[in-house]
Amino acid sequence: MNDLFFFIGDYLKGKSILPSIRRILNFLFNLSISSFLFEKIYGSYSWLNYNDYKGILDFFIKGNFFIPFSIFLVVYGTTQFLSMILFLSFNYFKAVKLTKEILEYQFKKDIIDQRLKEINEVSEIVGPINLTKETLVSLYQNLRTKLTTEAFENMESSLNESKQNLEATFSLAFRMMIAISIYFIYIPQFGWFLYSIAAVFILVGMYVIMIAYRFLDVFPTLMRKLHHQAEEYLQIHLKQELSNSQK
Fold first, then answer.
1. pLDDT digit string (tens) for 112-125?
2. In this structure, what DSSP letter does residue 47 have?
3. CA 80/CA 115 separation, integer angstroms
4. Rounded distance, CA 136 to CA 164, Å?
5. pLDDT for 139-196, tens place per residue?
6. For residues 175 and 225, is the Cβ–Cβ distance under 8 A?
């Protein structure tokens, strides 16, 4: 009961309750899958009355609890392993390929100058500030002191937490997909229509999670690459300015 009050309190305070909801749903879906497997292997079961303390004590002391507990652990471990393998197999090689492409890509100064010119033309129409090349270079010079190795490490650390949340949500969606498939088979009211809609939403959600994870995975590399390229462009730009001033 105290946990429920803390849960409601966190919600009213504006704190994220998604981790708590995810844990509850994970527990429920694991129980559903475990219950299905238990009945498939050992047959149907019935709940002990809450006031049947002797039956409850026998259930635990004589070891009968270990059978459903073992099934629950196997279900949890298997679904966790399979979801992790599925998640990594769809993301790892894609992320490696994207990282390689980012590292190998080389911006040319004339291309950057053209993009800065386009930004300037757009800013003259839609923005209150005229973003010239000199303005953007000056802005970067003011910001570059903050782009330290520690700043990039802090960014990567904060992204790792988001990546872990995405991976945990993917595992939940994987278990949900298995559970609703069982519900569809054994609950007559579930029906094709509800199952199809739920399956599409879950599968689309899993795909979006993988795309978001992939983006967060390569984002630090992309930022470091852009920083490196900006430094190279700045050095060339300053040399050209110095050369023009000496003429």
1. 666 556 555 555 55
2. P
3. 46
4. 35
5. 666 666 666 677 777 778 888 888 899 999 999 999 999 999 999 988 888 889 999 9
6. no
